[in-house]
Amino acid sequence: MSQLGQLSREGLWSNNPALVQLLGLCPLLAVSASVVNALGLAMATLVVMVGASTTVSLIRHQVPSAVRLPAFVMIIAAFVTCAELLMAAYAYPLYQVLGIFIPLIVTNCAILGRAEAFASRQPVLPAAIDGLMMGLGFGAVLVVLGALRELLGQGTLFREMALLFGPMADGWRLTLIDDYQFLFFVLPPGAFFVAGLLIALKNSIDQRREASSQPKTITPREQRRVRVTGTIK
Amino acid sequence: MLHASQVDDRPRLTKMPSTGGIMRWVIIATLPGLATMTFFFGLGVVSNVVLAAAFGLGLEALVLRLRHRNLRPLNDASALLTGVLLGASLPPASPWWLIGIGMVAAIVVAKHLYGGLGNNPFNPAMVGYALLLVSFPTYMTLWPTPQPLWPDTLVSQIMGSTSLEQIDSLSGATPLDAFKHKAEEVSASQFWANPPLPRATLTAWEWISAAWAVGGAMLLAKRLISWHIPVAMLGSMTAAAALLYLFNPDEAASLWLHLFTGATLFGAFFIATDPVSAATSQRGKLIYGAGIGLLVIVIRTWGGYPDAVAFAVLLMNLCVPLLDIYTVPATTESQAATGRAQP
């Protein structure tokens, strides 16, 4: 099942929608002020992404290419409506907090991008896995961003988790710094800043891994010819 | 006797001062302003500047070390100047952590993340100030009323152990702040008939503005800044403020309030003229300065902040790359177009 491994690696790391493709940044930056907001949006996006990728793949032979984009958007909008209604039914307080950003998942170009670039050309199973992994990758970045911003901005973690998990989550709040507020990280500019740091961190980890994976010995001269096709290993 | 080869008599223009030399002169030119502020608001002004300058040098050294650069740029005193300017912008006797956060934003983020001195698109001191103003509005708006040189709470304020309520009791609004937050139904003339702030506060701000103007005159006399930016900025502010005042004298702040009771003169001579983040050509400088002046009036009149120099400067910093493209001096432009120098 090497395809599963490759799709996971791409979705979660090497082609992460938030860190590499830089798609869907509007909700990413707007809603990531706390873990609970980020988690709520991450789950909604994940549901929409898996559903949309699977459906797009299912109908890929029936939709003429001239009208494919409107068709994809309709499909995505249908799933977003489902996610919105589900959230209104089961997590109404969080639904109210997230507000306009739930319907706006329709315009999340990470979803349309995967539908167009991957799902419309692949069989159902890989498309579904790709949607799942891309959604997880997006969601993971969203939650990490939410956690960092909540920590740096308000000194807490998991505050107001009851919005999502009900009364049993009342005691989950961790106060790491007492009586602390740093508004910059709560406001949108802080989201840009922390997202930039996460991207830099990802690139730096990649560079370090590449540097350490390269053989220490110098390649013989005759093997260092310029190759114009394919990747240079 | 010198040998002929040792005598350097080639014709040349006047010697250009080094970056460090310029920075040191600008720091000297801040002294009248800083001294006047200290006279009215006490030694908290000095502690601000000293702490900010120390943070500036320390952070500069730290980042240069992290970037594997040698520490020679420390000599150019630019980090010191950033510290002095930020220190002068903050309310006197700001707690040390506030100054530290501001200087991290200024030196680490605004300056070195963009590549160090000469590559920063934004004025570092104003990035630090804007970050603090957005993040800690309560601390940033606590300007004291004029007070003795050594206020009782000086040390505890710097250590950050004074409670906000305690500082609040010592502080008053700045004139611009008081005017901005006057009640809706109070007209400007009623405001001035019975101003909610002591006369001493107004006097202090007038003197401080005058002292910054003296420092600015020193910079102009030494030719360390050109007249374009301050003149354009003050000119457009005057024009915009006068226009608003003519149309609506009951609501608008007077010209005097705009020019002499806030950060206007300090900004015009010491902030807007930062050679790195300002426009470079003369026409560009005029547009840049005029834009700052206009934005200051716009933000003060319709925006949420009583003083707006920092935001106006940062917004115009954003326009500088475009201004520099569209205001290339004619000769250079035709050189670029034809690919060769003009005869």
Task: Please outline the major beta sheet of chain B.
Answer: 2 strands, antiparallel
Order of helices and strands of chain B: HHHHHHEHHEHHHHHHHHH
Tertiary shape of chain A: globular
Summarize the helix and strand pattern of chain A as letters: HHHHHHHEHEHH
Mean pLDDT of chain A: 85
Q: Provide mean pLDDT of chain B, rounded.
A: 85
What number of domains of chain B? Answer: 2
Distance between the termini of chain B: 42 Å
The parts of chain B where pLDDT drops under 50 for at least 5 residues are none
Q: How many domains would you count in the coordinates of chain A? A: 1
| Rg calculated over all Cα atoms of chain B | 22 Å
Please estimate the helix content of chain A: 55-70%
Describe this protein's structure.
The complex is a heterodimer of chains A (233) and B (343). Chain A has 233 residues and is mainly alpha-helical. Chain A has one domain. Chain A contains 10 helices and 2 strands, in the order H-H-H-H-H-H-H-E-H-E-H-H. Chain A has helices at residues 2-14, 25-31, 35-58, 68-90, 92-98, 109-117, 124-154, 162-165, 183-186, 188-213; strands spanning 156-157, 174-175. Chain B has 343 residues and is mainly α. Chain B has helices at residues 19-41, 44-66, 78-89, 96-112, 124-135, 137-140, 154-159, 164-170, 175-180, 188-193, 199-221, 228-247, 255-260, 264-271, 282-302, 309-326, 330-338; strands at residues 143-144, 171-172. Chain B has a two-stranded antiparallel sheet with strand order 1-2. Chain B is globular and about 75 Å long. The model of chain B has no long low-confidence stretch (mean pLDDT 85). Classes of the chains: A mainly alpha (233), B mainly alpha (343). The interface between A and B is small, with 6 and 7 residues.
